[in-house]
Amino acid sequence: MKILVTGAAGFIGFYTSKVLLNIGHTVVGLDNINDYYDTNLKFNRLKELGVVNNEASVFNKICASEKHDGFSFIRMNLEDREELPKLFKSENFDVVCNLAAQAGVRYSLENPESYVDSNLVGFLNILECCRNYSIKHLVYASSSSVYGLNKKVPFSTDDNVDHPISLYAATKKSNELMAHTYSHLFKIPTTGLRFFTVYGPWGRPDMAMFLFTDAIVNNKPIKVFNYGKMERDFTFIDDIVEGVVRILEKPANQRIENNQFYKVYNIGNNNSIKLLDFIKEIELNLEKEAKKNMLPIQPGDVERTWANVDDLINDYDYRPNTSIELGVKTFVDWYKSYYK
Asked: Could you say which of 120, 223, 231, 297 is the most buried, measured as most Cβ atoms within 10 Å of its Cβ?
């Protein structure tokens, strides 16, 4: 298939592109390479895909990979209503994997406009292009953040998610509602994926795994929120991407026959890990104890996440299962190598 992967210079988008190429698909990667975090990391991910910096830095120009015949990249803003339809028209995609978004719970308190631009306006543009250019299936990133103040665990896609506690979560819930509307009105098969705390090599520098490792290595205290009384369903990047690719590759024909154009899945490890146990695992791999700065819970944070993945098992015979021990070791090994 020919697949558009948005957010291709991002953490999940980079890995998804790589796996799709290895399977034999043709991939067009799109990213605006914003400066929410270190752009060098984004450009280096693209280098791994064979796209050089000076090519990737030019807006609205398709550049070919030097490593993969099946990969090309374009720097573009999803909210660009003129350029995005041109791309869809010229490239004739079969399916779209929309992983681009303004990420981060805490940053949404400081810069709400960027979430509206990317996550709402940008997503609407994707939906319109899918509608107008006969896209067979739209798979898009949602987030475990949509569960907000839900107390019942593990979180199920059958649960009510009307109580988000960050603007980021609200935009992700909005994406699901928008997709539902387009699926209903225009019979576009859409699948939303609620990711649970993704970590691993090439991960985002604003997330706990990276922040803790970096601070410990550099003899700085780590910030431990809610005095350590947090639990997360930490999910290794390979497990996330395996789920994304399985869902992308399986035709939506059966759903169409049953008039089920809209679907949402959790992708998580189905296991809630105490934050202090997670930190211990990092300390073990670095052979160094963390200096802990115990702090109250941050606005927008939830105390616990835990994914029910029954639907993923039933529909795709798939269950993420990478242990926290293996996942943390793999990240720490990458970190040491990348930062020498």
From this structure: 231
